[in-house]
Amino acid sequence: MTDTTVIVDDPNRNYGDKVVAVEPGGVEFIPLDERHGRPLQMLWTWTSPNMEFATVGVGILGPLFFGLSFWQSVWAIVLGTAVGAGTQGILSSWGPGHGLPQMVISRSAFGFFGNILPAGINALVAGIGWFAVNSVSGALALHALVHALPKGGCLVIVVAAELALAFFGHNLVQAFERYAFPVLAVIFVVASIWVLTKSHPGAKHTASPGGWLLMFGATFGYAAGWNPYATDYTRYLPPESSGRATGFWAALGVFWSCSLLEIAGAGAVTAGQSQIDPSSLTNLLPTWLGKLALVAVVVGAVAANALNVYSGSMSFMALGIRLPTHAARAAVALVFGVVGMIVAFGGLNDASKYENFLLVIAYWIGPWLGVVLVDRWLRRGTDIQALLGDRKYLNWAGPISMALGIVLSIWLFSNQTKYHGVLVNNHPGLGDLTFEVGFLIAAVSYFFLYRATKPAQGTARAT
């Protein structure tokens, strides 16, 4: 058994730019002769999956649960989303050069086996958690459109469409996002403008302690929820593709789509809506537009979950488990989708845990980002490609720092329904600083542990 995962060209893949073909393999390097696409496509890759009700639901949280005014919600939405979109752009820019999924590149900071920590968490959060949440919103919208179909039947239909895309893989997923983009953009832009004309930005509100930071954390968590997927969708771009252009279009896709729909969600609450389900949007629209919005919610849920289950399966494969099949990734995607559907059945009649789920996302992503970004800075000027496939490569500074960031930040600053951190108990006005503190603790810890442990560096980059 070899101790190195192959990251050289594989002439037997024969996938290229084929759309209706099952993507072979798992998390291997994408051969140079199979590279295709252009940075601009990241605009629709990251716009379409956010054009769904789950995004609207994030905006609803500010005025409905956190006691914010409309304008306070808007500021939290814009700033939180900007940070999450910015890191999405940075990470996406690494894809063309490495030709590898995000959770494989993460091995640089965590080592081959230490990377089990972030890859395992992401596999569960993306392939099961987010998959379940978005499937529920899509199923509820389909049920609202076709009352004759029971909610359970609607869920099965939505999941079947999502799994079909994820099973075939990268090229079909990208094609779906591209063709869904103009339809979703037009419908949701019109619907959002309509909702905002019905809103009352000056409506009275009862501020809750730390509400703005809670909303900032939720919006960052939602945008940054895509960060661990970033290079999964840029690794097929030609290596000469501009990193700046790739990052710009990815960041823009996340930023404008999330900001628009979340602001519409906040506006819907000021217009009298008080539920986290598609009716909060459609109740404010004329019948014809409401039905179109429901169709868009269903399509948007499929667009989002095609990415969730695809990247969830990629994260699972990044654990280093060898599966004896040429279509390993496709098989794993199906398994994750079925498990996610089972979880989703339990949420068809209860969306009350949505707020906590959003904040939990930021809890682990903040420390992971801190480690990954500092590692990249420390290794500037070096070529780390060979390290990413070496099963003997160790870097315990990463998992230790990430674990410290998660544990300490939650212990001190968590502001969840069932657990309040030590400092939050005494100072509720702090809101929820878990992701910010987690990022800083992990980043600083990694800097010093990296210097102390001196993991393998890679080789000097050719100039």
TrEMBL record:
Pfam families with a match to the protein in the record: Transp_cyt_pur (PF02133)
PANTHER family: PURINE-CYTOSINE PERMEASE FCY2-RELATED
Source domain of life: Bacteria
Primary residence: membrane
Keywords tagged on the record: Membrane, Transmembrane, Transmembrane helix, Transport
The name this protein goes by in its record: Cytosine permease
Protein family membership: Belongs to the purine-cytosine permease (2.A.39) family.
Record-annotated membrane-spanning stretches: 51-68, 74-91, 112-133, 145-167, 179-197, 209-226, 247-268, 288-310, 330-348, 354-374, 394-413, 433-452
Compartments reported by the entry: Membrane
Membrane topology category: Multi-pass membrane protein
